[in-house]
Amino acid sequence: MAYFILKRLVQSVFVMLAVAFLAFSLFRFVGDPVSQMTGVETSIEDQERLREDLGLNDPFVVQFARFTGDLVRGDFGFSYRTRQPVAEMIADRIPATLELGVVALLISLIVGIPAGVYTALRPRGALTQTILLTTLVGVSIPTFVIGILLIFLFGVQLGWFPTFGRGGTVQIGGWESSLFTLDGWRAILLPAVTLGVYQLTLTMRLVRAEMMEVLRSDYIRFATARGVPYRSLYYRHALSNTMIPVITIIGLQFGGVIAFSIVTESVFQWPGMGLLFLESIRFVDIPVMGVYLVVIAFFFVLVNLIVDLLYVAIDPRLRIRDLA
Amino acid sequence: MWAFIKRSEPLWLFVHSPAAIIAAILALTIICGAAFAPWIALNNPYDLASFSLMDGLLPPVWQEGGRAPFWLGTDDQGRDMISSILYGARLSLMIGLAAMAIATVLGVGLGLAAGYIGGRFDAVVMRIADVQLALPAILTALLIDGIARGVLPTDVQQEFRVVVLTLAIALSLWVNFARTARASTFVEMNKDYVQAAMIQGQHPLRVMFIHILPNILGPLLVIMTVDLASAILLEATLSFLGIGLPADSPSLGTLIRIGMQFLLSGEWWILWVPSIFLVLLVVSINILGDFLRDVFNPRLR
Amino acid sequence: MLAVEDLTVAFPSRFGIFRAIEDITLAIAPGEIHGLVGESGAGKSTIGAAIIGLLQPPGHVERGAMRLGETDLRALTPNQAHEIRGKRISMIFQDPQTSLNPLMTIEDQLIETILAHEDITADAARDRAVGILEEIGIRDARTRIRAYPHQFSGGMRQRVVIALAICTNPELVIADEPTTALDVAVQSQVLDLIRRLADDRGIGFLLITHDIGVIARITDRVTVLRAGAVMETGETAAVLGRPAHDYTRALMAAVPPLDRRVERFLVPGDSARGGAASETAARWLLDGDAGPPLGLSVEEVSVQFAGPRTSFLKKPDVFQALDRVSFAVAPGKVTGLVGESGSGKSTIAKVIAGLVRPVSGRLALGGEPLPEGRARPRRHPSRRLIQMIFQDPFSSLNARHRIGDILAEPLWLYGLEPRAEKRRALAAAMLDLVGMEPDAIDKYPHQFSGGQRQRIAVARALLARPRFLICDEPTSALDVSIQAQVLNLLKDLQARFGLSMLFITHNLAVVRQMADDLVVMRQGRIVDGGETERLFRDPASDYTRELIELTPVARF
Fold first, then answer.
1. Binary contact (A226, C168; C-beta < 8 A)
2. A212 has a chain B CB within 8 A of its CB
3. What is d(CA B216, CA C399) in angstroms, rounded to the nearest whole number?
4. Does A231 touch chain C (CB under 8 A)?
5. Residue-level pLDDT at A323
6. CA separation for the pair B144, B100 (Å, rounded)
């Protein structure tokens, strides 16, 4: 077990290093950092001195090591566009994106898992066929069209929800949250649904497929032959075995949530990291782009490590060594 | 003919699945319409001379003020919506198909080799796939696009827009193919026909491509279909974000982005007609993918 | 107790209605073990599923009656049927590895089953569960009950499965191939346990199996099935000892005897067929540079596999798959290799075939040293001289290639025949030689039965013009009558073309019919070896003696 966790940790570190390398290459090779930082009036000598100060003349490996060290210490450099520290810019935006992502993920799980279980237990029912067709349409509508549709219906036509921004926020420590005011909840609902719909359909289809697979397994057939009550058969025996592969994929899906939050944030003008990233791409603001990458990868790796721990908690085969 | 269909499992299931038949007809119609757009479209949205401002902002024919031959109305420049959509779908499909093809070749090649060779090579490919997974499709595509902006001079950028976009989408989709091909290859490697070929001393490339590949095509075909849909969605999304194609060569996503300006005004068709069309295209491809999945994995039926 | 009358189960499909079983009548008394024997497709499992009410849709009972005591099983509502399951009828599945929920302890699964049917406290249920585990032969049951399924070995797991099936005192237990996945020694223990439960508790068993040895060993009565219909039923000793029906007689004739060697099995459909085409193939095999038979020697071969890694600091445990194994296959003779699962017998096949590289040891074919593993070049002559026939005929032929292409491949690969039309003609002739219609050449593997595919696999091996054949359990996936045909075929070909053969199997009766010499393996080591008949009469090691004694014999 310890080995399993340790192995995952090492793999995570590898992923982080690779992403850091990507970010570093961006910084180092896409455009010239010095000409980005200086104006036209800076003399060649000044540029050269800046180059030396920044350590850009050092060997490649040394530069990468320094870059990684800075990242670990939380020193993310300065934006080309605003000249602000990138760390501050990102930190300001993290709460908005995380809250959006978590609410969306919750929506997708709370609706997706029961729907998946239902459609697996009644594979031929009329409601199942309807749900399946609806989710097929669900994965086929681009996130931004869903967003526009929701804005049009509930924002413009009915006027129930705001169509942009976070609404009322509360400052808790350094965290600006919109989850503590009614206004904030009204603001987060449309974007969270927009972001959650796609994940919901994926979750539902995955739960359904895994559950149907489990229901055909020998141990479920054996439990049926022993007359184990259907309730226990489905929700104790089958569902727990279904969740093992499902939580792995949900961990991977978290990456999708973050990525699609870029689109959602753009549609709803939600002031999160995604919007910042879009702006930085438009202005080729390399430091912000690079740090965004690293932060996203970090969250992704973190979530998947938590998933691994959950995995160990659920599956005794990982916890307890074989005696025989 | 009927006897032939009855003997073939996929064909039999196909003629008994109304959803798949409708989806196939729809997809084929759209693909043909897009392919023959220059011959059947009313005007060419790239050619200023082929449309007139006089026809601007006409609603669809069933609404007050709409008139033939602009069945689904026109935009503010006087471009026929149907024509714009056909040209847009042409571009979307071209990019989608090309991206899918590149992703298939890259992903299947790497996955097959990783499964066959195993060991270190496999570990390296899978770690690269891990990194790719940590940076999901949209992000990868945006990033590559951003890099292209930084590296390529502006005039070249415009020229290579389509190429960069296609590559960005392809690079973000290859992991699916690689993982599926690898997992399927592992399964096949344990089968005796592969062992037999290896014992006979057949060339590894022959074992991989003549023996294993035909046996893992089923699940790959499903992914190809589903990923074609993803590629089209991805292209539309990038264009919508204003990072994909410029407005002078509009794909479906660009059309929707332009239509957004009319969200609050009365000209609903400029936004919703291309949106519905895009959804119809993707839904029909996804229904076909779903059908194929059921065919190749009877347990889900 | 159980009475089944005129039971017919129908499976509607697009090709029409398929009746898996038709007009089946059988009865089981309390304490009786009733054997249900038949070849694949006979409908054995369908009967069991119909009785317990778990037919896979769209299968359904079309007509007939099933009564358990006073209860009409067909008249039950789905909920009533579910209550009867476990309480009065229970079931044991084939594979103990997959029959238990991996996420729940044995205790939870036992208690849940007991509480589902009886109104007692959880503590009382626990006491009962421990008692049953002890009865079933699990030592230290009070602590072991808290273990998860993966902590038990295969044989122990099957005991747990049986405990789960009987923990509610059912009247009837349907056992579907309960020992097929087990080794001989464990099989023997599990069969004894079933016999004891029938005697002590008066449970009636419906024992479904394809193994006539198992039937002979523990059943009181037996029903012989073929293609969904009863051929014969009665006291086991009577049915097997003096079969009245032609089919039963043919079946018994096809079962390889453990206690003697027969030269040929008398089976219908066995043809030392000889069209003109088969002569062409035979001549092709015999002339040319076929050369004299080649012997093979294996000297001091050891193979190690790395176990699963459990720590960064420690090296993974090494699993010694083969430990200094030495034996020889005499030129033109058959050497049998027997052992239970995990004994390393298949690993030897892989070493000889060049798929696995030993850590030490030497191989020689016809006196010439044979390079090991990846060191063996792709174009090494042994690649052609050594051919292999596999266990599973469903996976040994590439499903996407036509039979003609599969057969022509060795001719092309080894440069034996440059012209495509000649290759095709030769492939067709070879099909004739192995007893297949030559028009098979344009079909795909899925159009053939298991036995036919195994013949095709033999033809493919022969088309390399080999001198040495490795047969790795070539008949253990086949029905007995088909097994007899394939064994006959292999014997004929081996004798006629002077092939040396390594015949690997877990089945002692089969190996006695095939092998001139015998090697017995256990846990990667050779424990016994010598001339086959001598070894069977007078085994040198206790292990061999035990194996021979515990193998169920199909004789009366």
1. yes
2. yes
3. 11
4. no
5. 44
6. 17
